[in-house]
Amino acid sequence: MKQLTIDGIAEIKPSVLCGCKGLTSVTVADGVERIGEDAFCRCRDLEEIVLPKSIHTIAKGSFYGCGALRRISCADDAAVAGLLFDGFSRDKGAKTDMYLRLLQGRLETDDAFADCIRGYAVKNREYFILKAIADDDAGLLDNVLQLDRPLTLQKTDAYILRAQGKPQTEAALLSYKKQHFTGEQLEQAEQEQLDKAFGLKPWKVADWRKLFRFGYQDGGIVIYQYLGNDPVCRIPARIGNRPVVTIASTFSYRQNAMTCLIVPDGVRRIGVGACRLPGLEEVMLPASMEEIASYAFEGCRSLKKFSLAGGKATFGQECLRDCTALQELTLPPGVTLEKGCFDGCTSLLDEQGNLIVDGRHLGTYKV
After folding, report:
1. Could you tell me if residue 78 is inside a domain?
2. C-alpha 119: how far from its chain's center?
């Protein structure tokens, strides 16, 4: 008996065809509602199954051990597909083999049943990734990585470590990492690894509150005040899961210790009069800076070095007025300088009051 059509009954009894040899095709006609436990268990020659929408119960293990299947049709009905998928397995191996055969083109099936197989693969993705690494199977790995729910950076690094010595899968994981994570995420992960190596715990939001008074605005962090005593103030790029975007006007309130201010990439604005500190000697700003507001560094008479890494920031009115010790000024082309930005910066001006930066004449200012 190679082909069998089952019709005229409501239930296929448990174990009725278990271990049947030579059976290659089973078609269950509309009207059959239940398939009992082990009904087709270990029919090792079975290659094709066709099920109707009338099925509402498929006992687990109904198709267990049917390893030769190459075509499954279940009327493209999601409910029936889910029941049928459960009917194949008493252990993880049967469903795992089904997913591998689907990927390799050895199993043809309707969309609903294929979705069940992919859903199983998502839930058990780690198993398939580890199997791909063990076999150095880059094709399997690429398929698994394309499933929903992307990997975290921490997981990706863990798999890369596991894949050392497996050239195909290691290359695929490194490519995935490059495509899916930003430079900022990679830098943060690298810093966390360094902290771990030196026995330092990652800072929590509560830890940052000991150094800064800050708040939340438009999805980012606004630093309101530096509370620390360290003369070198390094603004964090992130606090918790939010980026630092603004240094507010009250930043230097009651602050006397700071001599150096280092601002990371991502910060976009420094507020009006934010850093009027007589003892401040050096300022380093990132290319992400968009605005340095009026009077931001006015009267910083000890300031000797001021640098902006890039970008096209706007310097507000008199933002560096009376920085009399300023001798090293690094600005990229394209910045906007409003009225009186460098008035009183006598150490930068020539005899005619011209401000020269890297051979560029930036204007005439008051001495």
Report:
1. yes
2. 22
